[in-house]
Specification:
Blueprint (H helix, E strand, L loop, with lengths): L1 H15 L1 H8 L4 H6 L5 H8 L1 H10 L4 E10 L21 E3 L2 H7 L9 E6 L2 E6 L3 E5 L6 E3 L10 E9 L5 E9 L9 E8 L4 E8 L13 E3 L2 E6 L3 E5 L9 E4 L11 E6 L5 E6 L3 E8 L15 E9 H7 L10 E6 L6 E6 L2 E6 L4 E4 L14 E9 L15
Antiparallel strand pairs: 1-2, 1-23, 3-4, 4-5, 5-6, 7-8, 8-9, 9-10, 11-12, 12-13, 13-14, 15-16, 16-17, 17-18, 19-20, 20-21, 21-22
Length: 405
């Protein structure tokens, strides 16, 4: 009896020691771990904490859940009054749900309050109506937060959405609006306006480059560890690091590729090793390139004569369809749709109204079943982006609800 009591006391002492409990939980598989948040508020706070999650991801691979695909038709985004008008029967923010959680979001009615889709990051949605009305929606608070109106009027612009999480579990974000000028020959500056959730206000500034350039209008930046990557004209990527305090852009030429492109679509993303990756597709196939970091230098500072694109993967569509005859429909063109967050092993492609997940290692296609096939989507004029929710549990009990606004 005495030995049992001593054993019980030892277990109790271990579970009450934060360091020991943390070491135990780090060894628990993800599905089991998430159930343990119900044990007590102490366990909930520990598992949901930033430090524990960071330690857990060093041991286990980070994962996220696909809720569906958000659709934005560029024909209606930021157009003049005499431009295309969205018909009343077409939703401003179509959502192609892939699971029950996605269905709950789709039918909750919240998407009708947000305007058009712009971008998503870490589960947060950035939506609105260019050029003056923007909302950020949090999956924890379930409420849209309307940003104050910007100070500058940009008729043509591109955007960036930066979401950061601090060690005290407060999620902060920035929204950047960048003015696009269609005549880059004599222009070597770009006007930007940045909203910070910390200050609750917009701040105007100007970015410069040594020669004339222009950002591609109506595009959204890829953000990797706080560094912004925009598509620029003449096959360039413009790089801006807000953390450096230097209001300058770097420009890197995109790889030319080895295929002859009659029709081309391009996407940017983050590879699993934290590099910028670039995918381009044509009628023939897909090429995926990675921009390698400079040795010993700041990872956000690139120059054309020093940076290097490496071809990571090349896919021939004809070979792909031969390996996957079940899904083959040669009457439909195939395009690269999107990368997955921090993933180099697979990517989304589209053929007609079908969306597939292509697995690089196995060279196979998995069709993505989504709800909403009956809806009328103008695929060629729309941005279709996957919406991922971090699989890690979050709770409003662990965070200040105002930390999102």
């Amino acid at each position: 009896m005495k030995s049992k009591r001593m054993a019980h006391d030892s277990v109790h002492a271990a579970l009450n020691s934060g360091d020991i409990l943390c070491e135990i939980l780090l060894r628990v598989p993800e599905k089991t771990l998430f159930r343990l948040i119900l044990v007590s508020r102490k366990w909930l706070h520990l598992i949901c904490s930033y430090s524990f999650r960071s330690s857990y991801y060093t041991r286990w691979r980070e994962s996220s859940r696909l809720l569906g695909f958000l659709v934005c038709n560029f024909l209606y985004l930021g157009r003049p009054r005499d431009g295309f008008r969205r018909p009343h029967w077409e939703p401003a923010l179509p959502f192609l749900s892939t699971c029950k959680e996605g269905d709950d979001l789709k039918f909750s009615g919240v998407l009708k309050q947000l305007g058009y889709f712009i971008d998503s990051s870490n589960g947060l949605l950035l939506c609105g109506r260019h050029p003056m009305t923007y909302y950020v929606w949090s999956p924890i608070t379930k409420q849209p937060y309307q940003l104050p109106q910007p100070n500058q009027f940009y008729r043509t612009l591109c955007m960036a959405f930066i979401v950061e999480e601090s060690h005290d579990n407060v999620i902060c974000y920035k929204v950047i609006r960048a003015k696009c000028v269609c005549k880059p020959i004599e222009v070597n500056t770009v006007s930007i306006e940045t909203f910070s959730s910390k200050t609750g206000a917009w701040k105007q500034s100007t970015l410069t480059y040594s020669t004339g350039f222009a950002l591609c209008p109506r595009t959204v930046a890829t953000v990797i560890r706080g560094v912004v990557y925009w598509f620029a004209v003449q096959k360039n990527v413009a790089i801006y690091d807000p953390n450096l305090g230097v209001r300058r852009l770097s420009l890197v030429k995109l790889p030319a590729g080895e295929l002859t492109y009659d029709y081309e679509e391009s996407v940017l993303g983050e590879s699993s090793d934290g590099h910028l990756q670039y995918g381009q597709s044509s009628k023939l196939g897909i090429e995926i390139w990675v921009l390698e970091k400079e040795q010993g230098g700041n990872s956000s500072v690139y120059q054309n004569n020093k940076s290097r694109w490496n071809l990571r993967y090349k896919l021939n569509f004809r070979v792909m369809w031969k390996r996957n005859l079940t899904y083959a429909d040669h009457s439909k063109e195939t395009h690269i749709l999107s990368f997955l967050p921090r993933n180099s092993e697979s990517f989304f492609i589209r053929s007609g109204s079908n969306i597939f997940l292509y697995q690089i290692e196995s060279k196979t296609l998995d069709v993505v079943r989504y709800h909403g096939r009956g809806s009328s989507i103008s695929w060629d004029s729309s941005k279709v982006a996957p919406y991922f929710m971090p699989s890690w549990p979050r709770s409003s009990l662990c965070q200040d609800i105002n930390s999102f606004t």
